[in-house]
Amino acid sequence: MKRTTLTHSSQASSRIWATLLAAALLAGPALAAPSVAAEPSPAPAAPAAPAGSTTTPAPGVTTSAATTPTATPSVTSAAKPSTAPAPAPTPAPTPAAAQAAQPAQTTTAAPDPNSPADRAAMATAVGPGGAAMGQDPAGKAARASTQSLTAQAAWSPSFGVLGLDVSSHQPTMDWQREWNRGARFAYVKASEGNYFTNPLFDSQYQGSRSVGMIRGAYHFAIPNWSSGANQARYFVANGGGWSADGYTMPPVLDFEFNPYAGRTINGFKFGNTCYDMTPAQLRSWVRDFGDTMVGLTGRLPVIYTNTNWWNYCLGTAPGFGDYPLWVAAYPGAATDNAGPVPSSWATYSIWQYSSTGPFPGDSNIWNGNYESLRTFAGAASPVGSLDGVSVTRSGSDTSLQATGWAVDRSAPSSAIPAHVYVTDPSGTTTGYAWTANKSRPDVDQAFGYGAAHGFDGTIKITASGTYKVCAHAIGKFENTSLGCKTVQASGVEAKPAQLPVGSYDSLSLRLVPNSARLVVTGWALDPSKSSASIPVHVYVRSSNGGNPGYAFTANKPRADVNSVLGSTGNHGFSASVPIGGAGSYTVCAYAISVAPVPLGNPSLGCSTIAVPSTPATMGYLDSATLRTSAGKTSITVTGWTLDPVFPAVSIPDHVYVTYPDGTRRGFAFTAGLKRPDVNSALATVGNHGFVSSVPVTQRGQYEVCAYGVRASPLSAANSLLGCRSLTY
């Protein structure tokens, strides 16, 4: 029975778990008589009785017939027979009823579970590793001595998938060895109470995954220490999360014998084997933990327990069937029978069948095949259907139309890709990637996955004959075939010659130092050869009357064009043409047919752009002086110049000298010297100073002029920086 207190997401999880458990039951062996597996020891201690009352001892508890048990009865480990024992006798009244009839013990807890200091002290006090799954280390040692070590060292059940669980009690793990020995999943202790975390968790958790295992985390519950919600949050914060990645097992609640029964640690009385809690209190604690885990991870936790303890401490506890069960039961000899499961379940998902081998820690078996284990971990395969394939016609075009739906059960709210492969009459197979995001309310009504999981697409064909169409759902973790269908297409005739088609998309100016160009973009396609990249001719008419032409090829990818037209190949163009300066330009583009008998070269359109002029260069001729060195005289010219359009560029400075005999010579230099005064004054960047030297060859009057040479081709002219007269 599902609990009505679950949220909507919990109820969905319940349905999923019910399905998984049913699948595990069908996949696993039939359960035989429940008398061949023994529970982990030590057996639970009897609950304390009020003064003057009598109690019936729990299984495995030794009491004196002449005395009444004290509040903290002694606990003895139940010795294991060499063969499987019969089920422990049921006391009268039943343990759960006897326990419920008594008032719960009250414990005054000295430490504060919310105090970081008290939690740290408790972690230290419980010792390295804390409690071990299936009872504390001492209990494990006692239990191991009662088992058939020869059988346990190598024996495993003959069904299912092998796995193991470890904690920091197994400090050295050779994960590759365990994989080679058959282990395919692992659980790692992450936390205990809200005070202990496994210091080896990361290395064990990632180490098991590194060799290919599906792995998960478990939490050892101490229910009388803090609330279920508190410990669930602590667990998730320290490794107990889950994601539908296909290799993360759902989190586990280790709910079993009180490992510290009868002990007072740091002032906290841990109580009896049932933690001094009534069945109702324990059941409420588990539900508090489980509901919190659903809210934090989206999944109910697996419950690890053993039959005697659960039935004794929680009694007949309805409403837990939606939690997967991990049952601990250690047979004394090789068997596929796990024995009876706790009263809240019909079967188990995982059986912990040994604590002494063949694997380190504890040895486990998944009650199903590997595929069901992966499903349990969240790797649900995509599902869907290729519903139909038909031939459609529109004008002169013939197409195949494929419809269907696809859902990734690992992420049912998302639309996933559907890949469609078409094999044409020549045997050539071509793939197409679609998205299954079209409305399919029938799918939602039938399966509850949501309505937006349909696909419906067309693929143009050019030849008559038989076509085979296959579809695949592309999931996050794996892909699923949706099937194949064949269809016969007839009367698919060659298309008559058609004019090319295309589009003139944009015209823009691209200005860089020493270059101004117009860029026209668009696409062009000749339907008679739709896979070919065809020529595009561009003509530029300027305001000065020029009209040069340029030839390009429309060979750039344009997936949008192919998607709309059902074409293949590359059909985009981005043509760059030079211009000489500012002015008005009209740019026209034409698609050039490649048909054997072309019908013409249609215009793709024209655009006009006004290109403005840019500011002239600026600068100053600071000085022109005569200098004589080593018997040679020259004129040293200093100053600065820059182009404000490209202020970071060092531009040329040209110096012209008129000699005394009237001849005129020009000299080219670069204004590339640092002039911090210029940069500071103009708030600019770059190097713009020059110191240039020109030769003096005769005596007389010299005229020296300097010019800043533009970097922008759109500037009207080069600026005169100044002139100086000198006499030599």
UniProtKB/TrEMBL annotation:
Residues 36-121 are annotated as: Disordered. It comes from Arthrobacter oryzae. GO terms for molecular function: lysozyme activity. Residues 84-94 have a biased composition (Pro residues). The keyword Hydrolase applies. InterPro entries: GH, Glyco_hydro_25, Glyco_hydro_25_AS, Glyco_hydro_fam25_subgr. Belongs to the glycosyl hydrolase 25 family. Its EC number is 3.2.1.17. It comes from the Bacteria. It is found in: Secreted. GO terms for biological process: carbohydrate catabolic process; cell wall macromolecule catabolic process; defense response to bacterium; killing of cells of another organism; peptidoglycan catabolic process. Gene3D superfamilies: Glycosidases (3.20.20.80). It catalyses: Hydrolysis of (1->4)-beta-linkages between N-acetylmuramic acid and N-acetyl-D-glucosamine residues in a peptidoglycan and between N-acetyl-D-glucosamine residues in chitodextrins. Residues 1-32 form the signal peptide. One of its GO terms (cellular component) is extracellular region. This is Lysozyme. Residues 48-83, 95-111 have a biased composition (Low complexity). Keywords: Antimicrobial, Bacteriolytic enzyme, Disulfide bond, Glycosidase, Hydrolase, Secreted, Signal. This enzyme has both lysozyme (acetylmuramidase) and diacetylmuramidase activities.
